[in-house]
Amino acid sequence: MTHLDEAPRSEKAVAPAQGREKKLPGRDRLTVITMVAIPLVLVVLLVWVPALLSVALSFGKWNGFGDIDTIEWVGVQNYKDIFTIYPAFWPAVQHNLIWLGFLFLFPTVLGMLLAVVLDREMRGSRFYQTAFYMPVVLSLALIGFIWQLFYSRDQGLINQVFHSEVDWYGDPDINLWAVLVATAWRHTGYIMLIYLAGLKGIDASLREAAAVDGANEVRTFFSVIFPVMRPINMVVVVIVVIESLRAFDLVWVINKGRNGLEVIGALVAQNVIGEATRYGFGSALAVIMMLISSVFITIYLRTVFREERQR
Amino acid sequence: MSRPLSTAIPRSTVATTAATRRSVLRGLGLGGLAVGGASLLAACGGDSGGGAASGSGATVKFGINEAEGAGAAHDRLAAIAQAYQKESGTKVEVNAVDHNTFQESINTYLQGTPDDVFTWFAGFRMAQFAENGLITDLSDEWPIDGLNDSFKQASTAADGKQYFVPISYYPWAVFYRKSVFEKNGWEAPTTNDDFMALMDDMQGKGITPFAFGDKDGWPAMGTFDILNMRLNGFDFHMSLMAGDEAWDGDEVKGVFDTWRKLLPYHQADPLGRTWQEAATAMGKGECGMYLLGTFVVDALGENGEDLDFFTFPELDSSIGSDALDAPIDGFCVAAAGKNQEAGKAMAKWLGSAAAADAGNNAADAPFIAANSGASTSTYSDLQKKSAEVVGAAANIAQFMDRDTNADFANTVMIPSIQAFLKNPDDIDGVTASIQEQANSIFG
Description:
heterodimer; A: about 300 residues; mainly alpha; MetI-like fold; two-stranded antiparallel ribbon; 14 helices; 2 strands; flat; disordered N terminus; B: about 450 residues; alpha/beta; D-Maltodextrin-Binding Protein, domain 2
């Protein structure tokens, strides 16, 4: 009894020291403040200030000559123009969405399948891993060039081999799909590697347990392995969404995002970098892109936080 | 985006290397837009002003749009800089920047700490800088010996003053293989009837009359330019480029309509073909002709011995055929440059025959000098003929993307012309869309 009485007392004695009101010693507080302040300043300066400036610029018309007072403020005219008379905008939104859907449907599933197959330690699996991962190392600019060798209408490999005359990069009904195949070629390896890492991290006893319970390979994967890889799946979802919103390099290399390859990122670039300097108009496009990304980011963060709370 | 005569690197490759992650970030609009690039070009030049303003002991900074290793184009400019240093005693500090980077950063460059003298193009883009006070008035240096009135005209901005000194140019014309024409007994056409007959004959023999590629977006501007100049005249063309004429009027619709009728004589599916690929098709004899600048030679990997050209024939006898695109390259003095006096003095010299000769003698491939006193001994036959043809032309345009607002040319005209090539029957739709966007940009 005395033993039991003592325990709560000692807890009480310790509790205030661990409570929320406890003050950190001076030096620790300073460290914490510095550690929070420096990233905060960086984020504010490098992300929020420019982002808000972009929003401000999007209400003006400015060709970049002269000082800031030469900006002509036009209200929502840029947005109105984008939605009504800019022929490239709506196709661009559509293409970004197709991009997103395609990346989920094909390369992600294929990457997962490859990971599962390669995880089985078959002969030469190292070689295949490297082969499938190779495209990821290449820049998208280089990938655009490599595929140009396949897709060129007059001199490309595909048309030469099949004696066809398909205008892979030029026909606006086909070129998006041609580009998506090139993207998938790279994206598959990336997803494969992430899943491969995830699969290696799974406790072997889970598989054994499933096997003892009489589950076959497919059942084991879908009922045991896949749910255990939930964090990996989350990462993949985020990567795919970001990759498809970021879609830019490849179409820029191919035709600067015109003629069937309009994506929002390329439209922003067309208007603000290079010789064209429609800073207001380009900023308005960038703001629209930021809003679309925010929707996805918000959904993702809410899911993550809800999970944290449930734990 | 017309290119200079002989950049060794194909344009597509240059674009490839330019589209890096950094441009992605800049493109996202989160990089503070214009501010970020300001130091890009300026950083390349050292900081060593001081000394005398000009003449012996002075220093002048010279920004050139060809990086070292870019071939003849760089070698010529470097040799010109050295020749000036030797002749005037002024020390010339060369700041060599890759062609595309230079062009894309020009705005921030001129508003930051630019070099005193820099390479640029004649036309609206030059005039726009003049209007915004970014380049220095050079009217005191004009006239320059050997540069005729049409060059003076091309160097003049809206206020009637000169802001530019030309050094070289190249014409856009219809190129063909001499051997192919000889074998088939064809001759360069002068009238519209000859022209149509020639194209029909080519088609009859299974040769596509015109090679055509517009994957890069700018080559088809050349076709629009020449058709507009032939159908509506040079003056209309220039005022259309300046935003003073309607794009949805009957004149422009007429241009697109003529183009639509000529399209069956062009290679199909131009939007997936680079200009290099189109040039190869002409080079191999699959196509009879190709409307392009003299840089067509670069894509063929030969010296152009078997190439010849003619100017686009007349389409309307009341208009004639005495106008053509011949982009002029040259120099401006930056208003923000430290050493204005030395810059002006150098700019004047750069227009001289001696400057052109210094460049041409030092490089494998010469340019066509603007100065009439320059030696033509290093010219190829093509260049000699180019000089003749341009000299005989009554009116010279610079090319759509140099003659009009760059915003308009790049973000409206390229997609619109491509939309027309995709669907040539919707002329009303394309011209209406161009006009709406022109209102928004020029408005």
